[in-house]
Amino acid sequence: LRPGEELNDDVINGMLYYLSRDIDWCHCFTTNLVRRYLNPVGENQQDSSMSLGERRYAGVSRWTRMYGINLETKAVVLFPVNWENHWYLIVATDLSGYETSLTVLNSVQGVGNVPEAVAAVKEYLYYECNLDRFKIHVPQVPRQSTRNDCGIFTILYGQFLLKDLHNFQVH
Q1: Pick from 78, 80, 98, 92: which is nearest to 136 by CA?
Q2: What is the C-alpha end-to-end distance of the chain, expressed in Å?
Q3: Which is more confidently placed, 164 or 88?
């Protein structure tokens, strides 16, 4: 990238897809999932018989159903997030419900409205997998030193996690 340029959704999605494409124990959503979940569109959005969470889920539920993806069989699910032009990664592990956790890998602490994005992922997983208990981890991770490196950090977090899941530990 040239100085001052940033990655976009297509690059982030493409790289994370490339990294996870042959790994059957992982599913990687696009950067659109959390954004679309929090800003639902479609016919169900005016249905007053549904809760807000149900309306949100109705807007994205086909994203796994259409392809026959069962998240409960995945060891890892990646949720790349772009919040106000800042990228980070939320990683869900053990969706079988035994010790389900969400880990936030964010190269700039305090940026990206992590609480709202984590709440959206938790609510999505409640409807998708019937999960309601999570351990939340926000570990110390390598931090960026410039304003526009968060996309690269997001890709690298995904790359290192997928290369060596067994050594992915949260402290």
Answers
A1: 92
A2: 33
A3: 88
